[in-house]
Design goal:
CATH topology of the largest domain: Aminopeptidase
CATH architecture of the largest domain: 3-Layer(aba) Sandwich
Oligomer: single chain
Shape: globular
Number of helices: 12
Helix content: 25-40%
Amino acid sequence: MNVNKERIAQRIDDFARFNDKDDGGVSRFSYGKADAEARAWLIQICEELQLQVTIDPVGNIRARYEGTDSSLIPVFVGSHIDSVRNGGKYDGIVGVVGAMEVLSVMRENNCLPRRSVELIIFAEEEGSNFGTTMVGSKALIGKLSADEMGVLHTDHGESCTEVLKAAGFEPEKMGDFILKPGDVDAMLELHIEQGIVLEREKKQLGVVQAIAGMATIEVTVCGTSNHAGSTPMYLRNDPMPAAAKLIEDIEDTAANHVLDSTVATVGTVSCKPDMPNVIPGEVSFTIDIRDIEQDAIQKTIDRITACAEKISLERGVKIQFRTIGSSLPIRLSPRIMDTVKRAVSSCSDSWMTMNSGAVHDAAMMAAITDVGMIFVPSVGGKSHNPEEYTSPSDIALGCQALLFAVTELCA
């Protein structure tokens, strides 16, 4: 059985049409208008493929291709359809379209697997609405309760619960849909690399062996707001230069004091009252820390905290930390890795094992089942922006490997 390269490319282009903004990229937040339109289009295709569609109370979509042995637990394959603001058209979509292609090819060839296959589309993977990633997959495995969703808020002050209810979902009923160990045999996710390793190594496919853990921390630096003209420099408790010094220390910590695999990013910065002629009273920013070793993540946090304490004393400001999201590093299943290695080897000699610096829904699913991931190259390593690109040939090759892996696991 072979995948259809043209159909794959067309479906990726079709998804890109569902877009909340006309800014050159793709902006499709979960629970928004474009997301609803994309979901409706996807569900229509699933129904045409005679799949059994289920939508859970937080918006995860499951579409089941029934196997011949109902006593066997299913294999999941899929990814996410939401995007960051002004992102690219491949992140998540390649995995969703790849899973759709697997089931399309199986249906066209009257393939009758013993084990059922379920296409799964995770809601709110990117965290664009609430600042917390992988809301759908966390809820699906019982790691995010309805009460915890009520604490998450958009930039406009709406709670996660309010947003979900406005979109027609009932998160308080998610308890009946939670998956546990023994419910799913395996989970496979095809994804763009979102890095430059495959391109630099001139490889077409990557077999993921570990997914980095992450900690997302909100830092608030509090000083004294005052007039910008009448307050002498030596009488200021200005949180802005204190924040700048701490941000510099964050870069130095990740670059020089932990592991080569450690990364730390300050992705958002804001201040109050945010006026050009007023010394701010408060500066807030976020830190995204990642590594494939949990000890390295903690060491990074500890050193940044020590730097903050020193700055606080020297500059007369108060610095507060709040963890707003975290996930542990994941070593992927040797059983599934072996299957994936056989699958990619059947497609190409140009592949390598590698780690994932980006966190994926597959990492959440590893808490309840064996997980495998296949990467395809990102040209220039670019992702989360409109220049994100993976060639149609590389995507088709990844889909073919995914097809081989799924059919082996379900045979």
